[in-house]
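Hi R.,

Here are the chain sequences for the assembly we discussed:
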Amino acid sequence: MIPGEAQPPALEILDPGLLLSVQDTGRPGFARLGVTRGGAADWWSLAIANLLVGNQPAAAALEATILGPGVRALRTITLGLAGTMPARVRGMSRPVEPGATITLAVGDVLELGPATGARGYLAVPGGIDVPLVLGSRSTALGASFGGLEGRALRAGDRLVAADPGRALPPIGWPGAPAPEPVDAAHPLRVVPGPDARDLGAALEALTSSSWTVSPTSDRVGLRLEGPPVQRGRALELATHGVVEGAVQVPPDGRPIVLGVDHQPTGGYPVAAVVITADLPRLGQLAPGAEVRFELTDTATARSALAAANDVFEQARSDLREAARWDDLWRDVGR
Amino acid sequence: MTAPALEVVPFGDAAVLVRIAVAGGIEGARRARAVANAIESVRAAQAAIGEPVPAAGTVLVPFDPLALTTEQAAALIEPALRLAADDTSPGSAGSHHEIAVRYGGEDGPDLEAVAAETGLTPRDVVDLHAGTTYEVLFLGFAPGFAYLGELPEALRLPRLATPRPRVPAGSVAIAGAMTAVYAHPSPGGWRLLGRTDAAVFDAASSAAARLRPGDRVRFVPVR
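And here is the predicted structure of the full complex:
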């Protein structure tokens, strides 16, 4: 197949589940135009799904939310599954756990189950072929551009894989297929935010209570339910740039954790910021989940990120090794 | 003029917030823009520094936390801060835009209330809003959403106590000392004076955002 040549569609969406969209690692560098980075809410799982089918970690894949979608294969194709949704080929009894490839024959239907976290990722060989908009194939759901026609996927949509015929061995990710879940024993780690000092006891209130993710949460932000946080000195700040993971305290005292589709600027004071290493875990939080915050410092945050990076690179290298052995065995058997 | 005090505070483990110690408004936005531009030139030699995000008197500077500590990132941008924070010039002359607005009625459901609260007639509100040339201070909130300033004193009101769940695209709105055009339908707490058919954001065009920081904007009433 000539790269770049138009391909017939490889997958048809039968049911999008709660929210299904095309996502890659987003479009950095346009915040000055009001465009947030966006991309996969859990970039760790996106990378795993992609690596399983031989893609670059940042390739465009499907992001499914809470309730899994159903897709039909329009050609023989191997998919990579990661995140927190198991899958099942209709008619087969054995479910496929995240962190594995699935090869579908023409007409096979793959159904993703309800998420144990919030999101499942399904990658196709070569990535999903939709146009690059401002340097990314991610769907900007709020502003309606990128992805497929700038919108969430619906039943009947057909998706093209950039390199669908690539032969791939059945293979498993040699590590965890999703970030460590957040629960009472495994809190989200935060560092003090830029307004922590002016917010008085807000940071302590945030880290000493248990919070529940509200049903009104989405990719833009997670609203937390719990005892309202006192804001200390009343703050009305001028609009300033914000980051994913910023924990804002609005006047009603109900914290908002900014998600991957957050606005590039905001005006609420920021009491704490989730560390970079824990952002994929934030992306796996669903409404109803219980959240605790643990205060750490930037040095610990850095070493946590470096450690996560090492674990990922080790697994990536093990995967390459396993794929090579698989090739060797295939050659021997020929 | 003496250099205003600058404060660089950590914003998580992968960004710092530069606070330029002046009030918001045009001066703060200009200083922030000058600082952001100076940081852009630092980035040319420092790939670990991310794209700066200027706003009203602040600049957010993201960095790669695997490559730099917060202290190292702050040290890298320090010379740029000292150089630029004093700069309140409007910068290079931007484009001039005229945006046709249908004021009042269904297009501007808050016009009457704004008139009542400011003690003006609706006609005065329109004349004041359309009689001012605004500067694009910075973009944020949503793709192509340009904060325009400054609004005449007589029109300055706080945001609505309860934001609307949905503001139509093209709505021309005011809040505090700013005015703006909603590029996309979205929730919003600004007061709606009118509506335009002008597109302010097109992701498919290379420029994407029609209104750029430093540009000048005038609203032209139509009916």
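The mean pLDDT of chain B is 91. The radius of gyration of chain B is 19 Å.

Let me know if anything looks off.

Best,
T.
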